[in-house]
């Protein structure tokens, strides 16, 4: 594979590049996490790269490695048809990466997913909430130390929901012949 | 005097926006999705999306299974076109292993993948018609889908949960009479395609609901990570099959239909045209393919034949190793992408050199499409949500992680 994307990043952000390799058709750069937003912005806007599409953001939990997490950005250029994987390493005690929400429309959503599943926070994100799980869920299920069989306590219904269930049960008990409430 | 009578009608009577919860039990929101809409009259001014959760834990389950045991889970991602998920995952693992599959396997994968795409598009078109009141069109589309599923059943042994893909090959070859049965199915599919055009494409009601609704611009589509028909309807001709050919897509001739306006009608028309292209691809594959093996002969990956397992010690050991320990995939990571039923289906997989995946991330088009769906709703009418949500073809199973 052409290594020109790796060279591009090295040329402009040489100090921030921790590692780079090209394997199995994937070009990868591992960069300093505090500059990741600038690097991706440059890759998006420069005429030579035009990485206008963010394919995915995900995270890998290397449980026994230090630093523990790695956030992975997969960038693609529709015009140039080339792809670059940008990875940043994130330590467990300071689980924080700058957001790239302002660069791509879908980034905010994908970052929410990473936060939900791995507990990596994105600094400057405008609305970092869980996306697939509910607010009361404790922990982050795709972390390797979250047991597969773990279960969460059942949620109590809110007051008004409980009232409406009771009202319905009372109604069914009192007037079984009438069927639906509208009848 | 007359002017006074009409005056109050022209005044804006909606002084405050109304909040409306649509879903999760709304018939059009697939059971888990909820939209919290802020309405001004019938106009949607803000939409907050919650995708909900089916509690299957696809990625977590994959990390606990061997590489081969992941296939049944991939069936349940986009359950309208499970074969495409099977092959997408198989391709990712093969990339990491650095192996090539036999030629016939690639042909069969192309054929069965396109059959799945037919099923996916027919379901989406039919269900879309149904939600707008076109029951007849729905019944015809479902007839077409059943015919496709009959073929899939004949080859894989199952209609929905096929688990047909294997690392380095396939579960089975095509049946001997496949081409014959395809010829029959093909005729009927062409008829159904023509009937659907007659029923829907120039239908006044259908046009009024579809044209100019759920509009997305090319820039917005790219920025929100839209792929597949959703992106192509805006005029961006990005198709993984064309831009980065895999299997045998580089050796067959087909067109990538694109739209102009990025509205619901364009998405519908793109799907209709893709049905024709898929039929074209299958025809060419059947004409070009030759007999041969369908599984790789690499003993690290392929299960030995039963003959070898029962009669040779090497065969038996190999069988045990693959079943109990799993295929030993070298350490590393790879992002592999294919064209799924509703967009780019990507697998980012990480191996630590054992028989189980360390991590499998699926770039599911359905989840990503939901990240930008509020852009399609906002500014439109409440009723436009129904056709728009249908034409983006969001599949609940794929939304899940």
From TrEMBL, chain A:
Keyword annotations: Cell membrane, Membrane, NAD, Quinone, Translocase, Transport, Ubiquinone
InterPro entries reported in the protein's UniProt record: NADH_DH_suC, NADH_quin_OxRdtase_su_C/D-like, NADH_UbQ_OxRdtase_30kDa_su, NADH_UbQ_OxRdtase_CS
One function term, GO molecular function aspect: NADH dehydrogenase (ubiquinone) activity
NADH:ubiquinone oxidoreductase 30kDa subunit domain span: 29-149
Transmembrane segments: none
Catalytic activity: a quinone + NADH + 5 H(+)(in) = a quinol + NAD(+) + 4 H(+)(out)
Keyword presence, Translocase: yes
HAMAP family: NDH1_NuoC
Name of the protein: NADH-quinone oxidoreductase subunit C
UniProtKB/TrEMBL annotation, chain B:
MF annotations from Gene Ontology: NAD binding; NADH dehydrogenase (quinone) (non-electrogenic) activity; quinone binding
Domain NADH-quinone oxidoreductase subunit D intervals: 132-401
InterPro entries for this protein: NADH_Q_OxRdtase_suD, NDH1_su_D/H, NiFe-Hase_large
Record's keyword annotation contains NAD: yes
Signal peptide range in chain numbering: none
Major localization class: membrane
Localization (cell): Cell membrane
GO terms for cellular component: plasma membrane
Catalytic activity: a quinone + NADH + 5 H(+)(in) = a quinol + NAD(+) + 4 H(+)(out)
E.C. number: 7.1.1.-
Topology versus the membrane: Peripheral membrane protein
Alphabetically ordered keywords of this record: Cell membrane, Membrane, NAD, Oxidoreductase, Quinone, Translocase, Transport, Ubiquinone
Complex and partners: NDH-1 is composed of 14 different subunits. Subunits NuoB, C, D, E, F, and G constitute the peripheral sector of the complex.
HAMAP family per record: NDH1_NuoD
Sequence similarity: Belongs to the complex I 49 kDa subunit family.
Role noted for this protein: NDH-1 shuttles electrons from NADH, via FMN and iron-sulfur (Fe-S) centers, to quinones in the respiratory chain. The immediate electron acceptor for the enzyme in this species is believed to be ubiquinone. Couples the redox reaction to proton translocation (for every two electrons transferred, four hydrogen ions are translocated across the cytoplasmic membrane), and thus conserves the redox energy in a proton gradient.
NCBIfam families reported for this sequence: NuoD, PRK06075.1
Name the UniProt record assigns to this protein: NADH-quinone oxidoreductase subunit D
Source organism (scientific name): Lujinxingia vulgaris
């Amino acid at each position: 594979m052409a290594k020109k994307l790796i060279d591009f990043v090295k040329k402009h952000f040489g100090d921030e590049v921790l590692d780079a390799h090209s394997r199995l058709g994937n070009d990868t750069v591992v960069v300093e996490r505090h500059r990741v937003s600038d690097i991706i912005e440059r890759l998006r806007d420069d005429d030579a790269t035009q990485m206008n599409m963010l394919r995915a953001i995900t995270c890998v939990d290397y449980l026994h490695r230090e630093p523990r997490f790695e956030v992975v950005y997969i960038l693609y250029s529709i015009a140039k048809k080339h792809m670059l994987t940008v990875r940043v390493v994130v330590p467990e005690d300071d689980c924080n990466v700058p957001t790239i929400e302002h660069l791509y429309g879908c980034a905010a959503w994908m970052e929410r997913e990473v936060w939900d599943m791995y507990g990596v926070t994105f600094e400057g994100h405008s609305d970092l909430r869980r996306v697939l799980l509910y607010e009361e869920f404790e922990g982050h299920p795709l972390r390797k130390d979250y047991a597969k069989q773990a279960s969460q306590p059942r949620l109590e219904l809110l007051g008004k929901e409980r009232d409406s269930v009771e009202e319905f049960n009372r109604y069914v008990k009192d007037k079984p012949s009438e069927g639906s409430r509208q009848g | 005097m007359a002017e006074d009578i009409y005056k109050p009608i022209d005044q804006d009577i909606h002084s405050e926006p109304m909040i409306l919860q649509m879903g999760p039990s709304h018939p059009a929101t697939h059971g888990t999705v909820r939209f919290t809409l802020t309405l001004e009259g019938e106009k949607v001014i803000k939409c907050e999306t919650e995708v909900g959760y089916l509690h299957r834990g696809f990625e977590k389950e994959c990390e606990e299974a061997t590489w081969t045991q992941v296939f049944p889970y991939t069936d349940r991602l986009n359950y309208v076109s499970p074969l495409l998920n099977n092959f997408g995952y198989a391709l990712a693992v093969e990339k990491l292993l650095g192996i090539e599959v036999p030629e016939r396997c690639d042909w069969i994968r192309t054929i069965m993948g396109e059959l799945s795409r037919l099923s996916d598009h027919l379901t989406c078109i039919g269900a879309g018609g149904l939600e707008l009141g076109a029951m007849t069109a729905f019944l015809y589309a479902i007839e077409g889908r059943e015919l496709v599923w009959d073929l899939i059943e004949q080859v894989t042994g199952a209609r929905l949960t096929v688990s047909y893909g294997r690392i380095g090959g396939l579960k089975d070859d095509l049946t001997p009479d496949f081409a014959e049965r395809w010829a029959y199915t093909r005729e009927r599919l062409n008829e159904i395609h023509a009937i659907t055009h007659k029923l829907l494409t120039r239908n006044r009601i259908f046009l009024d609901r579809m044209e100019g609704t759920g509009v997305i611009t090319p820039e917005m589509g790219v920025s929100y990570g839209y792929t597949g028909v959703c992106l192509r309807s805006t005029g961006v001709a990005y198709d993984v099959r064309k831009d980065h050919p895999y299997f045998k897509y580089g050796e067959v001739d087909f067109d990538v239909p694109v739209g102009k306006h990025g509205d619901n009608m364009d998405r519908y028309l793109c799907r209709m045209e893709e049905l024709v292209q898929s039929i074209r691809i299958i025809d060419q594959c059947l004409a070009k393919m030759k007999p041969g093996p369908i599984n790789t002969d690499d003993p690290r990956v392929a299960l030995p034949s039963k003959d070898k397992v029962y009669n040779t010690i090497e065969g038996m050991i190999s069988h045990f190793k693959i079943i109990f320990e799993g295929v030993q995939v070298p350490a590393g990571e790879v992002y592999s992408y294919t064209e799924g039923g509703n967009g780019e289906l990507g697998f980012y997989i990480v191996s630590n050199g054992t028989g189980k995946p360390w991590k499998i991330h699926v770039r599911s088009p359905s989840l990503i499409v939901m990240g930008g769906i509020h852009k399609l709703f906002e500014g439109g009418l409440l009723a436009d949500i129904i056709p728009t949500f249908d034409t983006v073809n969001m599949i609940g199973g794929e939304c899940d992680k």
